[in-house]
Design brief:
Chain lengths: ~375, ~230
């Protein structure tokens, strides 16, 4: 028989109490592990999403960088425009591989009586700036062809070849984008010049996405651009990522704090349960001292009981979190202002191991005082009862 | 084997000082069977705890096999309890979650000794519980629990067994069986020191020490009386 077996048998003597204490730890670790996994996934998903845009920086009208971030990833409508003439000027700057005009707005879909999000872009650039897209159909090569996001197409049961009307123009659906899991699914993509014509904003753009041939020269290129073109703001994708990350940061810090407090509260519950157990087993502890247990032996038995309880709770918490990942992700998507597309919560063994290690530390911390108290019980008084 | 010279034990209870033991002089030889008797509060259990190195006297000296116990650190006292002493209690104090086998083997966990199954089984057979090896304490009678406690006290091959009212919670028939078991152990060469309230059992010991008010009132060996 080992100390661990003795500790386990002690825990099993009060199954309901041990189970309830374990549930407390498991619940708090579920929250903690879910939040940590979500945060990890959030950062990775954001980086992936930025990467998928296929551009290095955006040129937008001077304004708030948060607005730009929304523009890039949410497709927000902004009231300011820049002149399409800068696209021509940008092509003269060395190492700019691609300058892709973008015009984002909402248009009334008369037939269905609702507003659709419309993204005007240069269709010949689609393969370069939307590298992750998979299409059913083809990229339009004329002014009257459009692409639909999967949600738009599914919502109205539109198929390739159908016709859709915006303003005074009728368009043919050239292709439907296979589901991406991002905001792209909710957009209608049409040639930028066609959209300018509908809006009567010839030469007006919301942004220009820029891809460079030598990313290491990014700073020089943006510096030169800022110096030569007035009234614009340049936002690199790293800045966009930082802006979005900072938007989500306060929510992350708040939720993580709550999770840590929950773990600490459950640790107090563990300490209480173990103290009660020691109180009930005073005579038994006295007997163990009499038959040869040292103070250290008693300390070891009690600390092992505590650690067993917290680590088992931690393992259950991680299992629960993994099983409930989909539900938790769905809930967080509803309450967070921005969440990257795709599956966010993935099981990460290193993170799980870190959480187990954390519960081990909590176990040692919560069990320290009860174990010390048990080890200092006077065997004479204990045996007398 | 054990020598006590002028042992006193005082402690504070509330506002008063209690003189639990006074001027105790006692020699215990190997292979003796001693019973300690006396009314409640006479200091029997306190003396047993001091003899068993669970408690320290307030004054006087005690030696075990020539080694002065009073100056020993806690770790050395723990070693003494592991190697030379076995305890049997009135309340048995078995661990409910462990089987008979594991309860008997418990002291080996603390002495970090080997855990030879044959030895433990031999002890369980000796106390007549070989059919109860996998049972838990709540499945045993009082007498059976006390037999498990005796086997547990023997597992570290002690030189002396201190039994604190081992038959106090048992009926007369079961008490007789437990006492016979202690007699059998004594016959095999083990020293037994037993506190009891039962005069019939006490008088069957080779020496009876009677305490009153913390002092030895009289000692008598079987068949003759000494003060």
């Amino acid at each position: 028989m080992a100390f661990i077996k003795l500790a386990l048998s002690n825990l099993m003597r009060h199954k309901v109490r041990s189970l309830l204490t374990l549930v407390g730890i498991a619940a708090s670790v579920t929250v903690l592990f879910s939040i940590l996994s979500f945060n990890r996934g959030f950062e990775r998903g954001l980086a992936d999403e930025i990467d998928k845009t296929g551009i290095h920086f955006m040129v937008v009208p001077a304004g708030c960088p948060h607005e730009v971030a929304s523009l890039v990833l949410h497709g927000a409508v902004t009231p300011k425009f820049i002149d399409a003439g800068i696209v021509e000027r940008m092509t003269h700057i060395a190492d700019i591989e691609l300058a892709s005009p973008m015009l984002i707005t909402q248009l009334l879909n008369v037939e269905r009586g609702r507003l659709d999000m419309i993204h005007g872009l240069e269709m010949s650039h689609v393969r370069q700036i939307k590298t992750a897209w998979r299409l059913e159909g083809r990229i339009p090569d004329g002014e009257d062809g459009i692409l639909l996001g999967s949600e738009v197409a599914a919502h109205d049961d539109i198929r390739v070849g159908d016709r859709v009307r915006y303003g005074n123009r009728e368009f043919s659906v050239s292709g439907i984008i296979t589901k991406t899991g991002s905001q792209d699914d909710a957009f209608v993509y049409m040639p930028v010049t066609a959209l300018q014509a509908i809006l009567e904003k010839t030469g007006g753009l919301t942004a220009v996405g820029v891809k460079v041939s030598r990313p290491e020269r990014l700073e020089d290129i943006t510096g030169e651009l800022a110096a030569t073109v007035p009234g614009i703001q340049i936002v690199t994708m790293n800045e966009v990522m930082r802006s979005l990350a900072s938007l989500a940061n306060s929510a992350k810090v708040m939720s993580l704090s709550i999770a840590v407090i929950a773990v600490l509260i459950s640790a107090v519950g563990v300490m209480n349960a173990i103290l009660m157990a020691i109180f009930e087993r005073t005579q038994e502890i006295g007997m163990m001292r009499a038959v040869g247990a040292s103070r250290t032996d008693i300390f070891r038995i009690i600390i092992k009981e505590t650690v067993l309880l917290t680590v088992a709770g931690g393992v259950c918490g991680i299992l629960l979190s993994t099983l409930m990942a989909g539900m938790i992700e769905g809930f967080v998507r509803k309450v967070m202002p921005y969440v990257p597309s795709g599956k966010i919560i993935h099981f990460e063994p290193v993170l799980a191991a870190s959480c187990i290690a954390f519960t081990l530390v909590i176990g040692v911390a919560a069990g320290g005082y009860p174990s010390w108290k048990a080890s200092t019980i006077n065997p004479i008084e204990a045996i007398r009862g | 084997m054990i020598e006590l010279r002028n042992i006193t034990k005082n402690y504070i209870r509330g506002a008063e000082e209690v003189h639990a033991l006074s001027c105790i002089d006692l020699s215990i030889s190997a292979r003796e069977f001693i019973s300690i008797v006396g009314p409640s509060g006479s200091g029997k259990t306190t003396l047993l705890h001091i003899l068993g190195c669970l408690d320290k006297p307030t004054g006087g000296t005690m030696t075990i096999d020539g080694e002065a116990v009073g100056d020993l650190p806690e770790s050395a006292l723990v070693r003494l309890r592991r190697e030379k002493i076995g305890f049997v209690f009135q309340q048995f104090h078995l661990i409910p979650g462990l089987t008979v086998f594991d309860n008997v083997a418990l002291p080996l966990l603390f002495s970090r000794g080997d855990r030879p199954r044959e030895k433990i089984m031999a002890l369980i057979e000796m106390v007549g519980l070989d059919r109860r090896v996998a049972h838990h304490p709540n499945q045993l009678s009082g007498g059976e629990m006390q037999r498990v406690a005796i086997a547990r006290a023997l597992v570290n091959d002690p030189e002396v067994i201190f039994a604190d009212e081992p038959t106090g919670n048992l009926d007369s028939t079961t008490s007789e069986k437990i006492f016979s078991l202690l007699e059998a152990l004594h016959a095999k060469g083990l020293c037994i020191v037993m506190v009891t309230h039962n005069p019939d059992l006490a008088n069957r010991a080779s020496r009876v020490i009677e305490l009153r008010d913390g002092r030895i009132l009289q000692q008598r060996t079987r068949g003759r009386r000494a003060s």
